[in-house]
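ARCHIVE RECORD
Type: protein–small molecule complex
Small molecule: adenosine-5'-triphosphate
Source of inputs: curated submission
Record status: active
Notes field left blank by submitter.
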Amino acid sequence: MKPVNPSKKKLFKRLLFFAKPYRKYLAISMVSVLLLSIPGPLRPWLIGNMVDKYIVQSQNPSMLLFWSSILLGVLMVEGLLQLVSSYFSNLLAQSVIFDLRKKMMHHFLRFRMSYFDKNPVGAMVTRVVSDMEAITEVFSSGIMEIISDLFSLIFILVLMFLSNWELALMTLIPIPFLLFATKVFARSMKESFQQERMAVTRLNTFVQERISGMSIVQLFNREREEYKRFEKINGAHRQAHLKAVWANSIFFPVVEVLSSLSIAFLLVFGALHVSGKSALEIRSMYGEIFAFTLWINQLYRPIRQLADKFNILQRGTVRAERVFDVLDEEADLQEGGTIREVNFAQDVHFKDVSFSYQSGVPVLKKINLTIKQGETIAIVGATGSGKTTIVNLLGRFYEHDAGEILIGETPIQAIYLPTLRKNIAVVLQDVFLFSDTVHNNVTLGDATISREQVIEASKAVGAHEFIMRLPNDYDHQIGERGGMLSVGQRQLLAFIRAYVYVPQLLILDEATSSLDSESEQMIQSATEKLTAGRTSIVIAHRLSTIQKADRIAVLDKGELVELGDHTSLLQLENGYYKRLYDRQFFNQNQPE
Ligand SMILES: Nc1ncnc2c1ncn2[C@@H]1O[C@H](COP(=O)(O)OP(=O)(O)OP(=O)(O)O)[C@@H](O)[C@H]1O
Ligand SMILES: [Mg+2]
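STRUCTURE (tokenized, with ligand):
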């Protein structure tokens, strides 16, 4: 477990900083909370006086009624203050969290892909959702109530000492024990909070992954095992919670006993005092004893709650630390250049480009390749040879380690990222679709792309027919990740996506899966339409695509080993491409 960060205070300050734009709410809730600490302790004092003056000394029902209505007034003011403080502290909390969540999402959107390689989705979801909730509580019930509790404590003590200091001292005897118990309690709560926090993250990650990978789980009959593993994680979560509950269930009876002790001391004191006193003198103490009984109750409640409230602060700060860790992750942020005007209708050069995802494991080694403007180049090679990695570098999802990638003369790092990505359309190997309509999956929310454009594009790539067969054609909701479409159909949607964006540079990472001959033919003609007249890099698995390319680049274990067209590569004596071809490496199911 992580040691307690020495800069907890700093962390808390940083959290408070987020409340700065909402100073008004903070001020209103602060003032109302301060005012709120007055009427409570005042009530016992009023009641004590009423008992003394209008019951013990003189029986005066009309004055009793008068003071009772004052008491009612005090109660109403208290209720009103409660309403104001609770509304504004929650408003403050929600506003702060709204901003923080926005900032977090904004940050996530800018991370490089390498960040997502390292961090499980479930953990990131936990940061944005449940960690934020814990931070909300810091503002809604943490800080404000601690302030209110502290003030009412002080106010009660002052009133107690003012009315009878000996009685006050006597009843305070159990307080040091209470403080000690509180401390022990707070420590054990903190531990269980930390465990709980980790358990929540683990639960989220586990559930998210199993649900995403449900087909694998079921296909390999892993249900029982996964269920058992889940039970373990779920159990750890319960354990962490139970520990907190256990601490609570010990702490509260202790507080009860101690507060009863205070009352007992109060009575003992009373008994000692009355010996040898006249009846009148004894009766003059009724009011005080009455008031003290109420005060003692009021005194214990905030002390008992303080431990709770500090725990909320504690938990919120622990979670905030995790959130800030993400916000501080600058190394993984994408950085774009500044050049916005670049002609993408130029040759693309790879010069001595090397790259590794993990240091020490080179994936691309000194790649030298020029893709001429307007040509279609096919990249072929065994699985894992680094083909997709070339796409990742060109789209700047990852940064190459050495060498240069140039569009004409301009290195891609110098190009403003949105400009770069607007001009390069990538059809990825695994098509990702959102749980949205066909139309929105093509436009990705870009309102400037009209329905006509989408239809035109889908006719061009030959997808119009199958879309029209869907229940609501272009407004058909495809399930999450496009689960309700076939692989070929998903690929076609990705083609439409690329087509409507009319890029200068097209990158197509063909799916490795083989398709039935009808889909094959559709994809084939779609590929031809897409690549026609624009610089295209096609990572090809299909022989038909490869043969139609102007040139073929052959990758082997991260190295460019051969370059040329189909016929010339086949003529190479003992060539790598020829060997692949002879082994029928490529998908050869040609459209008939
Ligand atoms: N995000 C990543 N983090 C670490 N290593 C990776 C990552 N992506 C790919 N690799 C590794 O880099 C190497 C090249 O992967 P790449 O995806 O470029 O292969 P590929 O040629 O596209 O293969 P395929 O034909 O199967 O799609 C592989 O050895 C792979 O293990
Ligand atoms: Mg690949």
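CURATOR ANNOTATION: The chain has two domains: 8-110+119-327, 348-582.
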